[in-house]
Specification:
Blueprint: E1 4-8, E2 11-19, H1 25-40, E3 45-51, H2 58-68, H3 70-75, E4 76-82
Parallel strand pairs: 2-3, 3-4
Antiparallel strand pairs: 1-2
Length: about 90
């Protein structure tokens, strides 16, 4: 199941949350978020990456995926939160 789903009438938004320590960060953005959007019948998806360390090149790789296909990136927004000091 998706981590969060927000709706306001027919408008829906799904949110997938991943930790930067997760090795499947890029896969989650490319495949999981898309599957959740399809399941909820919405074009809007947010991918929230919590930076808890061990980020490596994951953020850069996410940006490459989002920029490679403009339509894909526009419907799947990416956010990064620095959670190392919280």
């Amino acid at each position: 199941p998706v981590d969060f789903k927000f709706s306001d009438g027919p408008e829906k938004l799904v949110v997938e949350v991943k930790l930067s320590s997760n090795q499947s960060v890029v896969h989650g953005y490319q495949k999981q978020l898309t599957a959740y959007q399809d399941a909820e019948n919405t074009a809007k998806g947010y991918y929230l990456l919590l930076d808890v360390g061990r980020m490596g090149n994951k953020w850069d790789n996410l940006m490459k995926v989002a920029k490679k296909d403009k339509d894909f990136g526009e419907h799947r927004k990416i956010f990064k939160i620095d959670d190392k000091n919280v």
